[in-house]
Amino acid sequence: MRFASLIIELIRARPRLVFWLVVSAQALLWVLVPVVFYASPPGEIATVLAYGREYQVGSDLGPPLAFWLADIAFRAAGGHIIGVYVLAQLCFVVTFYALFKLARSMVGPQHAVVAVVLTSTITAFATPGVEFGPLVLARPLWALVLWHGWEVIGRGRRSAWFALSIEIGLLLLTTVAAPALLLLPIGFALATARGRRALLSLDPLFALLVVAVLVLPYGIWLLRADLFALPPLPAPADLAARARLGAELLGGLVLAVGGVVLLVLLNTRRFDPRPDDAPSVMRAPVDPLAGRYVYVFALAPALLGCIVAGVFGLTHVIGGAGIALLMVGFAVVMATGDVIYLRRQRVLRTAWAALVAAPAALVILAALVQPWLSPTSLPTSLPAKDIARYFGESFERRTGRPLPAVAGDPELAGLIAMGASRPHLYLDATPARTPWVTAETFREHGGIVVWRAADTAGKPPPEIAARFPEIVPELPRAFERTIAGRQPLLRIGWAIVRPRGR
Fold it and tell me: Where does the Glycosyltransferase RgtA/B/C/D-like domain lie (predicted)?
């Protein structure tokens, strides 16, 4: 007699409930972990907020949508970083919802939820998903493009064109990789009879009109900024290094799907003492075009993304690992066949829970243990609130005005720019990147210059002293960390640039 656990029965009878349980639990986990264990935001979130505060149509970091949404979420949360963490996890939820809807239309809800469960173990959707920015926002938009792209190509639903046009326009407003990514569904449509038939209608023309309206302001900004040029191709002497870079990126993607591989291996007949007694989840026969669609978008973004990144010397796969690996779990389900046998149910449950919890456990372990093992601090251990409060209040006490701008060390300046008065970020070493503040306006309205102090004297580094020859350094301010351990006090040197006329 075959025994099926409660989880198996829920997958069979209530797949939508299982989907929401899995996705909601993981999203909640990655809201709580950074709120509790991060003293400062990870990655480039502080810079994203500093750029979003300006509401520029475009910047050297790319299209503006992710920066605008980050600032809106930050303000909606009352100036608390939890708003950005919640926004990042909303992107996660929408990504997996679109994946579930796409899979359900192809293989049915039961196999669709199995695909979601497998995909949730991919590490690209864990810790990196907290670092909200263009790469994180691009994930749900890409997933929606794939879902509605299949509705148009595979199912011939003309009503999906409008949603698809909106999603394409928003993707173009999110990442510079969007044009390259969109070549893949266009190429797939041109290569298939059903896709060509869908493109021959009038609907694509209306879709192009919607896309053009959405991206027109950013396109005008690109023309004025003259940023249409591609990165330079590598010199012949650099080809070997670029090939290694592409291979390393591909190796990183393979490691990220290690959890999917482990679950597949644990579910093979070799590890099951009773291979003929396993419960199963069935589906109806699948459209052959659906299989090709899934395999193409499971392999092409990863392989081509690594090749393009290697050729141009980029540090990440085109579109990010979340886009490159989005369809991997679904491809495994598609390749399994019409019947999925779930063997060794207790082992599978334990392994899946461990794979999902492991990245969070590593973050917690690093936050609690690393300060006692090494004098090197984690980027997320800086006391961001204390730093921003102190320098904001210091400027206001001295001048009677809210702090208008902050310059100096980019990391420290970015944290201060998240403070209560939301001062402008001024990257004095690369002033073209922050055109909303110039050297002249910084000296006119005043601000604070900060740097990492090596001693109690607090002498500014030579490059900062050269850019701000008029500053008089104050005594460095020492900040305690949440967990001190073996790490020394964080000393920040600083100086006030007083507004002119005061």
Answer: 63-221
Model confidence over 79-136: pLDDT tens digits? 999 999 999 999 999 999 999 999 999 999 999 999 999 999 999 999 899 999 999 9
DSSP string, 279-312: -EEE-PPPPHHHHHHHHHHHHHHHHHHHHHHHHH
Enter the DSSP assignment of 215: H
Query: Is the Cβ–Cβ distance between 139 and 320 less than 8 Å?
Result: yes
Task: Enumerate residue ranges in the chain where pLDDT < 70.
Answer: 1-4, 226-230, 271-277, 501-502
For residue 15, the number of C-alpha atoms closer than 13 Å in the C-beta half-sphere is 20
State both tokens at 284.
């109806």
d(CA 131, CA 45): 6
Q: Give the separation between CA 217 and CA 303, rounded to whole angstroms.
A: 32
Q: Report the relative pairing of strands 447-452 and 490-497 from DSSP bridges.
A: antiparallel
Separation of alpha carbons 10 and 302, rounded Å: 33
- Distance between first and last Cα of the chain: 86
Identity at 317, one-letter amino acid code = V
Looking up tokens 């579930």 gives 100
* DSSP type of residue 495: E
Residues 6+ apart with CB under 8 A from 246: 306, 307, 309, 310, 311
Contact 154, 193 (CB under 8 A): no
Q: What is the DSSP letter of 493?
A: E
CA distance 82 to 32: 9
From the DSSP assignment, how many helices (H) and strands (E) are in the chain?
21, 7
